[in-house]
Design brief:
Number of helices: 0
Strand order of the largest sheet: 1-20-17-22-15-13-14
CATH superfamily of the largest domain: Jelly Rolls
Mean pLDDT: 97
CATH architecture of the largest domain: Sandwich
Oligomer: single chain
Low-confidence stretches: none
CATH class of the largest domain: Mainly Beta
Distance between the termini: 13 Å
Strand content: over 45%
Structural class: mainly beta
Helix content: under 10%
Largest sheet: 7 strands, mixed
Order of helices and strands: EEEEEEEEEEEEEEEEEEEEEE
Amino acid sequence: MKTILHTAASRGHANHGWLDTYHTFSFAHYYNPERVHFGALRVLNDDRVEGGMGFGTHPHDNMEIISIPLAGDLEHRDSMGNTTVIRQNDIQIMSAGTGVQHSEYNKNKDRAVNFLQIWVFPKVRNITPRYDQITLNPGQRVNRLQTIVSPGQEEGAVWINQDARFSLGTLDAGLTLTYSLTNAAHGVYAFVLDGAVTIAGQALSKRDGLGIWETPQVEIVATAKTELLLMEVPM
């Protein structure tokens, strides 16, 4: 088993006033040659956008882009004709493929929106751009792992153009569970949304990240009430 630890405090950070953002991996003006990606996982940004503000229309291509709101409401518009709002317990994915333009704004003027923006390298390049959004049932991740992103047409998850699988868990203190990887060539990146947990013997707290690979399974022990995101990707 190999592991790599990225503590919350070690992330790249930029505060633009309207946007307060933390980068687990190199992004924009933050560059760390040792933190460019974890396998196919390219970007893990923890964004807080002030009321009424947001990202104007901008292009993407050949990237799988996942947005997970943690608080507040995020409005999305794109060149495919989608105009939607995603909220806590929603998940959105956009396969940029041959090219797409989109914008993201805080729907509300009176409070901030906090969301994760995650980029994954695609399995197949230059596909026709596509968009999907679903509402998750939070009850399905109480003391278990709920699959939210998968490479197959799996009920309760969005489809991704990659052999990747994301899971969310809401774990009570004292709970122990095991995550089994679907492929020996994969790794899993654990990101603690809240709480405290020990994974593969490493103690983690809020917004810490741990990459694990060259192992068939990983033991997870919640040492406090914990919200956990797991991202299994090809290495």
